[in-house]
Amino acid sequence: MPERLSARRTLALVTDDGTFREVPAHKRDFPADGPLGWDGYDASRARAADRTGEEESVVCGTGRVHGTEAVLIAFEFGFLGGSLGERTGDRLEAAYTYAREHRLPVVPLIATGGSRMQEGMLALAQLQRVARQSALTREAGLAQVAVLRDPTTGGGWATLGAGADVVLALPGAQVGFAGSRVRPPDADPSAYTAEAQVAAGSADAVVPPGELRETLGLWLRLLTGPAGEAGTPHALGATALPGTGWEAVTRARSPERPRARAYLDAFFTRRVAISGDRCGGTDPDGVLCGFGERDGRTVAYAAQTGAATRPAGYRTAARLIRLADRLGLPVLTLVDTPGAANDAEAERQGAGAAIAEVFGAVAAARVPVTTLVIGEGGSGGALALAAPGNTWVTPDGYFSVIAPELAAAILKRPVGEIEATAGQLRIRPQDLVELGVVRGIAGPPER
């Protein structure tokens, strides 16, 4: 079990020295033993206050995290298990309201066992209150970055945690909707961990405590950074155009050609990754998604890696594009896939619906979206990530309605006619420009 830091020690861990200031909240008056008259509740609260030095289960305020101002919400697990009651809700609402009034991102530092039994349904209803505050903050275009401490369970996980834009977690933290005392006795405990939530696509990364301030600060800097045009990356591979359609295909499929990571490394000075579709899946081999910094400005990116893209990859990309749009940040997409994964498992995971999500996210985006085809542009699985009217291609890339081999098979042509079919499809970069499918061909970096 990881060390359970108090709320104050956690705040000291993530904020720059001397910058944290508490946000005042309305002090609700309670009858004796709370709204339900729960025998012994006042005594339990008094003991919790003596033990922790806190008056409630959360400490809320503002502070700088590696130079970026934010509203921080730190749970005190030692105060009745970090549980949420009406007074907790008062503090949370005050913190979110302050964030919107001052245009600041929100960072919940969560350690909670759930809603407070001694306040019954009045405590549980605080989850609706928190969800409303989070939704209003989302509508205001402000980022929410959650940090999952040990434990993060119940409604705190289902609202402040899983509902955040980016979810970071401390190693070994217990994370799950069901707490340790209410889950089935035969449940696998490894499923209720930070690492398991990252693997399932419900959290973005596990961050060691010693790296938390810097990592969280970088996230806040990028998500609150100035926006601008994404720009088009330079071509990193061949400069000469292919002579035939089949040459375009073989060049795009070459293992020697620069891939997404090379383009991202060349384009950004630093970047951070999001992971997972929040529906139980990840596609780390198919799509890289995140935010990067270029010339002091933030750009979101979704980059296919050359593999067939799986449904979780499309949903993650759609999540990235919607988040960037909400925060007013431009998007760069790199297209490079032979097509969408088409195996039976992909169909069971909702391939069509996932691709539709990306088409819809790109179509609805109010921020600039720029696309560069850096390799294979295989049918609708590639087109889903392409920006209408703002797509470019490298000399190593091609775009096709269907792979030449599949086109030949559908037309019942012999294998020997595959190369000629590639030419008929007019998939070379120069063909795409002439057809008006792309705006232009990316050139090499300036010397």
Major sheet summary line: 8 strands, mixed
- Rg value: 25 Å
Give the CA-based shape.
Answer: elongated
Going by helix content, strand content and strand pairing, the class is: alpha/beta
Q: How many strand elements?
A: 16
What does this structure look like?
By secondary structure, the protein is an alpha/beta fold. Helix content is 37%, strand content 20%. The strands form 2 sheets. Strands 1, 2, 3, 4, 5, 6, 7 and 8 form an 8-stranded mixed sheet that branches.
Main features:
about 35% helix; single chain; 8-stranded mixed beta sheet; 17 helices; alpha/beta; about 450 residues; elongated
What's the short version?
It is built from 17 helices and 16 strands. By secondary structure, it is α/β, with parallel strands linked by helices.
What order do the helices and strands come in, and which of them pair?
Elements: H1 7-14, E1 21-22, H2 41-52, E2 58-65, E3 68-75, H3 86-102, E4 106-112, H4 120-124, H5 126-139, E5 145-153, H6 154-161, E6 166-169, E7 175-176, H7 194-199, E8 205-206, H8 209-223, H9 245-253, H10 260-267, E9 270-274, E10 287-294, E11 297-304, H11 311-327, E12 331-337, H12 344-348, H13 351-364, E13 369-378, H14 379-383, E14 391-393, E15 398-400, H15 404-410, H16 418-425, H17 429-435, E16 440-441
Parallel strand pairs: 3-4, 4-5, 5-6, 5-7, 6-8, 11-12, 12-13, 13-14, 13-15, 14-16
Antiparallel strand pairs: 1-2, 2-3, 9-10, 10-11
